[in-house]
Amino acid sequence: MLRPVPRLILIRHGETEWSINGRHTGRTDIPLTKRGEEQTAGNAKVLVGEGKVIDPNHICMVYVSPRARAHHTFHLTFDHLPQPPKHTITEEVREWDYGEYEGMLSSEIHEKNPGWNIWIDGCPGGESTADMCHRVDTVIEKVREHHTLWHEAGIGCRDVVIIAHGHFNRCMIARWIDFPLHLGTHFNVEPAGVAVLTYNHRNLAEPALSALNLYAPPQ
Q1: Across the beta sheet with 159-164, what order do the strands follow?
Q2: What is the CATH number of the domain that holds 25?
Q3: Binding site annotation covers 14?
Q4: Which of 13, 146, 147, 167 is catalytic?
Q5: Which residues does the chain have with pLDDT short of 70?
Q6: Is residue 33 part of an annotated ligand binding site?
Q7: Residue 33: predicted pLDDT
Q8: Which positions bind substrate (predicted)?
Q9: Residue 192 counted as domain residue
Q10: What is the pLDDT of residue 30?
């Protein structure tokens, strides 16, 4: 019998006021809206549980961004279970540090810096594209360590979950499938949406994207 393929499950936090109006939200702690809470809790009932898409029996670790909107999303996602999965709160999965552009709309940024493109220029006073690529690649290495232990040695569980943010998750998807970071611009990652990253042909050398924006509500 073939063993299941290990997976990385990416969850973006639910809706916030700044995700609605498009303000760049990095280190600022913005709470979920009421709708964001309902979105996330509703997704959890459908997706999370024994025998469901996100089965706690198969989760070896959940990495959670320190921002309150992500931590709240973790609890809304897993607190209905008899035993929430093991998790750690880490700055490694925080949102892109927008530096001087924190809290600004793209239109406001372009008034100051016409032609600015985060995927090429990064953020002054925050993280460059090289910084972001290095951080994301470091997280991917940790995920693949879990996957390798399970796939080759039968140690631990097979799935890793990350609860993070829009730009971070887009970067993760691009780098997971060995794309240059800037191609993350082509992946829409909706609030409360779930992405599933795995491998083709049960081969850890063939990373793949299997699902994007599961049950994400229309914006």
Answers
A1: 87-89, 59-64, 159-164, 7-12, 194-199, 207-214
A2: 3.40.50.1240
A3: no
A4: 13
A5: 1, 216-219
A6: no
A7: 97
A8: 25-26, 69, 95-98
A9: yes
A10: 95
Q: Say how many domains are in the chain.
A: 1
- CA dihedral angle for residue 113, residue 115, residue 116, residue 121, rounded to 10 degrees: -120
Count the helix, strand and coil residues of the chain and give each as a percent rounded to the nearest 5: 45, 20, 40
Tokens of 4: 């299941």
| Number of alpha carbons in the 13 Å side-chain half-sphere of residue 23 | 15
Residue 209 in any domain: the answer is yes
Residues 6+ apart with CB under 8 A from 67: 13, 27, 29, 30, 94, 95, 165
pTM value > 0.90:
yes
- 112 lies in a domain? yes
Containing domain of residue 204, as a range?
A: 7-214
CA distance 85 to 60: 8
165 half-sphere exposure, CB direction, 13 A CA radius: 27
Instruction: Please report, as a single letter, which amino acid is at residue 149.
Output: L
Say if residue 40 carries a ligand binding annotation.
no
Tens digits of per-residue pLDDT, 99-150? 999 999 999 999 999 999 999 999 999 999 999 999 999 999 999 999 999 8
Catalytic residue, candidates 24, 58, 72, 95:
95
Q: Are 36 and 70 in contact (CB under 8 A)?
A: no
Asked whether 125 and 96 are in contact (CB, 8 A), the reply is no
Question: Is 26 annotated to bind ligand?
Answer: yes
Judge whether 97 is annotated as a binding position.
yes
User: What is the C-alpha separation between 110 and 90, in angstroms, rounded?
Assistant: 31
Report if residue 219 sits inside a domain. Answer: no
d(CA 52, CA 13): 20
